[in-house]
């Protein structure tokens, strides 16, 4: 691919990627729910550590590479009077060309028992560090004033909110992970210009497990995203997933993303504490001729103090 194709591809992707991906985007969203909804914290009743790495649009120079580390659990795992409180933390970092975004967020959730279900209200708070090494570029116009200054860890605080309702076989969630619409100019100065701000994202998610036999369960689930403000509005984007769960250990899933891609997922509970997963994205949009697809890997570890918790498998308790 020559430089003109890179330039054309970059221009085509700007409207869809520059705004829609202001929040992290993972194919295995079902194992990264804390990133999207603070109310999810502690919903699995164990303390979990999860890591995710995503190599997006392989074969394209400067395409996004993203990783995430998250931890969450019940405060009541150690202090019984506080079992209604859950805490969490995530760090998500993305490299896109010469730009790098690193988000660090802390989470608090208050859980209310409603019969056999739990309704959880969550808040998050933290900051994004943004850097851009413009000096690494080879611009067509030399001494371009827009590229004259690198950006070094511009600090942008933010907070989010979400609600999460879950039971043994279902979950529903709604959230706004980043309520503030921050932005900054090339000199690391905040600007109060609606047209130049980040677009706020809104998320709706849900899923249900159908038990067909002792061997097989089916789990349809979805995540719907909308992003918009007074100036810009993006089309609603959805991930629609259907997964088969075998022996409560192996998950095989397929996802259709409405921005024209298909994803395959395989996830396994390797041991009582360890789980791993892999996803591959195949583009059916105009990107197909340029990208070799996207790859994603997730690894998780659960600290299980009560052995009886394991009788309910991860795939269901992921709710």
Structure description:
With 319 residues, the chain is mostly beta strands. It is 8% helix and 49% strand. The protein has three helices and 15 strands. The chain has a 14-stranded antiparallel β-barrel. Strand 3 and strand 4 (99-114) form a beta hairpin. It starts with a helix and ends with a helix. Residues 1-21, 190-196 and 310-319 have low confidence and may be disordered.
Q: What is the strand and helix layout of this fold?
A:
Blueprint: H1 3-20, H2 33-36, E1 47-55, E2 65-74, E3 85-96, E4 99-114, E5 117-132, E6 151-166, E7 170-176, E8 201-208, E9 210-211, E10 216-227, E11 237-246, E12 250-257, E13 261-269, E14 274-283, E15 294-303, H3 314-317
Antiparallel strand pairs: 1-2, 1-15, 2-3, 3-4, 4-5, 5-6, 6-7, 7-8, 8-10, 9-10, 10-11, 11-12, 12-13, 13-14, 14-15
CATH superfamily: monomeric porin ompg
Q: What is the number of E strands?
A: 15
User: Taking Cα atoms only, what radius of gyration do you get, to the nearest Å?
Assistant: 20 Å
* Level-1 CATH class name: Mainly Beta
Q: On the 0-100 scale, what is the average pLDDT? A: 81
Helix content: under 10%
Number of domains: 1
In angstroms, what separates the terminal alpha carbons? 43 Å
Roughly what fraction of the amino acids lie in strands?
A: over 45%
Low-confidence stretches: 1-21, 190-196, 310-319
Please name the CATH architecture: Beta Barrel
């Amino acid at each position: 691919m020559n430089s003109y194709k890179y330039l054309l591809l970059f221009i085509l992707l700007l409207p869809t990627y520059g705004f829609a991906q202001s929040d992290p985007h993972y194919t295995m969203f079902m194992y990264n729910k804390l990133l999207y909804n603070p109310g999810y914290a502690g919903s699995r009743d164990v303390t979990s550590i999860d890591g995710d790495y995503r190599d997006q649009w392989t074969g394209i120079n400067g395409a996004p590479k993203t990783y995430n580390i998250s931890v969450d659990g019940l405060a009541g795992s150690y202090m019984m009077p506080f079992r209604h409180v859950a805490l969490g933390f995530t760090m998500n970092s993305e490299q896109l060309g010469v730009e790098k975004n690193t988000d660090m967020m802390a989470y608090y959730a208050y859980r209310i028992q409603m019969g056999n279900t739990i309704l959880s209200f969550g808040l998050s708070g933290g900051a994004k560090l943004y850097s851009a090494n413009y000096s690494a570029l080879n611009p067509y116009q030399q001494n371009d004033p827009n590229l004259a200054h690198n950006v070094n860890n511009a600090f942008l605080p933010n907070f989010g909110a979400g609600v999460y309702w879950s039971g043994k076989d279902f979950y529903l969630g709604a959230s706004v992970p980043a309520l503030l619409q921050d932005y900054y100019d090339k000199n690391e100065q905040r600007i109060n210009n609606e047209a130049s701000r980040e677009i706020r994202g809104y998320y709706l998610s849900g899923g249900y497990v159908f038990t067909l036999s002792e061997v097989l369960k089916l789990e349809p689930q979805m995540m719907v995203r909308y992003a918009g403000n007074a100036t810009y509005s993006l089309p609603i984007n959805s991930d629609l997933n259907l997964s088969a769960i075998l022996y409560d250990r192996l998950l095989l899933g397929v996802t259709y993303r409405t921005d024209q891609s298909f994803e395959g997922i395989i996830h396994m509970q390797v041991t009582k504490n360890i789980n791993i997963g892999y996803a591959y994205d195949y583009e059916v949009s105009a990107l197909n001729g340029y990208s070799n697809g996207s790859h994603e890997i997730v690894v998780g570890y659960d600290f299980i103090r009560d052995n009886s918790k394991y009788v309910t498998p991860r795939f269901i308790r992921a709710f």
